[in-house]
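Sequence in, structure out. Go.
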Amino acid sequence: MAFVAVSSAVVIGLSGHMVRIEADLSAGLSGFHLIGLPDATTAQTRDRVRAAILNSGWDWPDQRITVNVVPSDMPKYGSALDVAIAVAILAAAGVIPTEPLAHTAFLGELGLDGSLRHVLGLSCAIRTLVTAGTRAVAVPAASTTHTGQWAVLPAASLADLVEQLRNGAPLIGPTPPTTAVDVPELDLADLPGNQAAKAAMEISAAGGHHLLLQGRGPAAGLAACLPALLPPLDDLSHAEVCDIYSLTETAWQSRRRPLCAPHHTNTAAAIFGRRTVGLTRPGAVSLAHAGVLFLDEAPEFARSILDGLRHPLDHGEIILADGGGIMRLPARFQLLMTTSPCPCVTNTCRCGTVDRHRYLNRLAVLRERIELTAPVVPHDWTAKPGESTVTVATRVAEARARAAYRLGGTPGQTNAEIPALELRSTHRLAPEALDPLDSALRSGTITPAVMTLLLRVAWTLADLRAAAHPTRDDTHRALCLWQGTAF
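Output:
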């Protein structure tokens, strides 16, 4: 067989693109000509493929070998096409039968010894190939934890893969879908006291609202409980989270919502992600997609980072740009921040009023996007154990179900996603219910943007009470929650 074509895929950002590997063996001066790849990648791929074939026990074809990767105008970087190129060459040389290649695609990097190695973006690539009608996708055996719901053909080495193609080895079936949520390591009942903060967390989870905890209490422990209060990831969100984590070395398999807690010393690239030629790395805002982004001691983060959070909070995505263009990654998360009243690290504070105001004012750039503020204090070990995470999560699920039913037919599923126009039309409240917010707006206490946030919180409070509409008490409590005085 002088000409063979096999399928593979490349990943650009979170988008998979199917490619075709064409191999031709012809008479002429012996050589290996690889076209359709960037120059730097071409030399590396050529050397890896040649060494892997030789070290797997086959002779290198003493012919003119031409391999073309199409479409030629699509950016192709990295090593994910190594296995497909090697298989195409071996099939053209008659080592592999061509029948299985018609419905099989190949992904993975080759080691010089012929081993198959994991590549980033595998989940996106497999989804692209299966959607295009590919029946089987051959992947490195070490990558099966990244394949999720897809049936694959795993192989530890090139020789192992060739043997399976010759013998028609069966596919390894997908992992059965499950809606089970991981048991959290920490329960709300393990944290005595702080009922105000726990109540704010329940409201935050029920409506998808952002939350700020103020004080010197166990904020990190409370933050660890928030993902367990949220409902499990649905199929769409789970697929998005899996795709994002496939761009890292970590495979996401859980249905529990992610919690990402970057340190304040992290760079902007670590928070927002980075893109260079052929390389996309998601940052904390994308790793927290569909889950919680936790910023402990938020005023310690650089002003540029706090300011940069405005775009993902408003649009649910982050835009990464370089000389090759722009890339959009999902970044729709709940923001949970904590702050001490001042920069002091001990309870023996000597800061003045001006120092405290200056410290807290670092969060002013996000103030019109944070719906809830609550105090957090040290544990009161004499207090009775509070409600468990499961109990609170049940109420959250019921409130979210009421909101989803009311918002049926619209893109949003939580009250935090209700558009401002809808709040003033379809979800318009009675004049007496709006009185507390109207008064605060006229006095300059809140802005129109903040009023929109508070209307959404009022609907969440109504859903938690199983009420048809928010009342005056709900809007008043929403205002107090924003100011941090309602409890």
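Check: The longest helix spans residues 389-406. DSSP finds 17 helices and 18 strands in the chain.
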